[in-house]
Task: structure prediction
Amino acid sequence: PVPVVLGGTALWFLGFLVVLLLDRSNSTLLWTPEDECPLVLRSGTQQRHRVMTRRPGIDEVARLAGVSKSTVSRVLNGAPHVSTRAREAVRRAVIQLDYTPNHAARSLAGHRANAIALVVSEPSGRVLADPFFAGVMRGVHAELAGHRTQLVLMMAQPGDVGSYLTGGHVDGALVVSLHGHDPLLTLLHDNGLPVVAGGRPLAGGPVPYVDSDNFTGAIEATQHLISLGCQRIATIAGPADMAVGLDRLSGWRRAMSGRRTDLVAYGDFTPEGGASAMTSLLTREPSLDAVFVAADIMALGALQVLHAQGRSVPGDVAVVGFDDSVPAVPPLTTVKQDVERFGRMLTWRLLAEIEGEEGLPPSVLLPTSLVVRTSA
Amino acid sequence: PVPVVLGGTALWFLGFLVVLLLDRSNSTLLWTPEDECPLVLRSGTQQRHRVMTRRPGIDEVARLAGVSKSTVSRVLNGAPHVSTRAREAVRRAVIQLDYTPNHAARSLAGHRANAIALVVSEPSGRVLADPFFAGVMRGVHAELAGHRTQLVLMMAQPGDVGSYLTGGHVDGALVVSLHGHDPLLTLLHDNGLPVVAGGRPLAGGPVPYVDSDNFTGAIEATQHLISLGCQRIATIAGPADMAVGLDRLSGWRRAMSGRRTDLVAYGDFTPEGGASAMTSLLTREPSLDAVFVAADIMALGALQVLHAQGRSVPGDVAVVGFDDSVPAVPPLTTVKQDVERFGRMLTWRLLAEIEGEEGLPPSVLLPTSLVVRTSA
DNA sequence: ACCTAGCGTGAAAGCGCTCTCTCGGAAGGG
DNA sequence: CCCTTCCGAGAGAGCGCTTTCACGCTAGGT
Result:
């Protein structure tokens, strides 16, 4: 079959060729940047009509095991009052039939969604790109393994999320990257949905949260700079509407007590934000010799600016970051936190809350530690 | 209430204090690094027994609107054969009752999960930390908005995922970061589950995929290096068991035809991998003057090594990356791809497949473009 | 020996929807 | 004017589970 090539530059053509060469399927497609929808050159015959091999149901398991549906259900859910004989029979039947319980039916009958939401309370999805978040997600996942609970990912565009979450689609929610006095937390909490915040919420009343000890970490970082003999120590703080931003700034202030504390610039946890903060700091105080950046991701931007202005790190300016999330040139001295543990803790707490466990810790603060590398 | 402090250093105590100061709740907890489980100091009285305000069902909506359940269902699903009068009545009732359809019931009755899985086929979860993946996820999300379809995130530990996915919990799957000849794709496909791969799969037969034009991108990048007059151009390739690794390497080879093409080292798409690849390259050919790195994230590691060895970039060694995903010092010349579009395309394709649309493009190749910055 | 516990089990009633069937009535063709 | 369509609408049968509830049966107490 000779494919019809519709326009395209020489490079595209090469790309096209490589597909032909590398792809085993005998059909392909050329993508043109102008169109939002792909052009079909030759469609494969993929109309394999979903053979739906009718999955076995609980009654089939029951029949095979020689017990009733009820008993199967009990075994599946680890309920008591089941004889070992029955339990084993069911187990065998389940394996033999490769039975998987139907999630929807189970949710419907059991009045629980068997799912929790991970809500990224930021329309831009900035957090997603943050290595910190990736680690948290891994932790969440790790903790979820074993609990037959799905992880539903949501990005909050204000409004739509609230009703979805309180609509009974999930049993609980993990809310991260909460800004300012976002009413989301209160909304969920008032609706009786178990919620745990990742990072101390500025508003939200008695909602439990898990957070890193940002305050102490910032103190350590700043003290390190001081112990190095730095004289003019600036800081690039996080957003003023997030606890993580405020706490790290507080730590810096505390450690700097007795010194000059006006060299503060705010960033938004992006490299660009870090870069412009650094620029403004340098303009205000060209002779600064150290900077505590409230996030490695911002430090990246700061380092670019420093480099562009020909200032050496740590020679001219010592830099300490926070998060231990990204490799940089030179390698950053930074405050490390165990992000995966953060995620696990978050999830553990939420699941416990959902189970209705008593005497749960209202909130958890995870320790941080300074990692000294090259940049300071 | 006077909290009991169980051990802890002065710093912890400060952290503890800041919680007391900043937190409105009158209870808190001290976290000790030794324990895997938090110590409860004073538990809040959060036993607000989930007031389950009995959500309205479809029959209540029907009653209020003065129609039957069937009609409400038709309106909700945009089915034809509904009078405008009835449609409006239902719409009003829905709003008045703040009705949200029950996801589980709908799935059960409708024989569809109303959910798709995003499968990260990598136990380590390495991809999660990749900015590339974050962008894809944003795209997936954007495309999903409007379709009442949930996004379920899964990290594949071989074995467990397959049965889950084919177990009818999701209507389709997006599989990314597939290594080598992973049987997952074939497994899913053979079970009739709609699947779309993110990145060309090495195995998997006729499974549709979306990929960036890695081959062409790599050619452009390498040609840029050549046009700069570089003489000894090396490459740090991606894993040899992933198409994205192979294709970028092929592109480099193609552009290098007629030149020396033995300066190849492999990395694993991590900064550490990039660093050790760079080290080995430098050992083998101390006089190399350019390197095409198959991923920005690896370039970061390479830059660290170059810096540590006192080689300037781009003065001594020109560096070109791929992905345009991370800021570096100096800013990387790199091959940019529209990751969000990648995610949207992936999702669009999967949803179309699920809907059973005809004449779908078997695969899609998205264009890339060179972004020239400082590093080359 | 009788009564009470309480364990192991099965029958059956839903959970809140979708979807097939059915049916009256309006529109259109002969 | 009658018969065929077809549209709008309702009744009702499940979807595959969980969960009372009721039942027989074995132990232990008196």
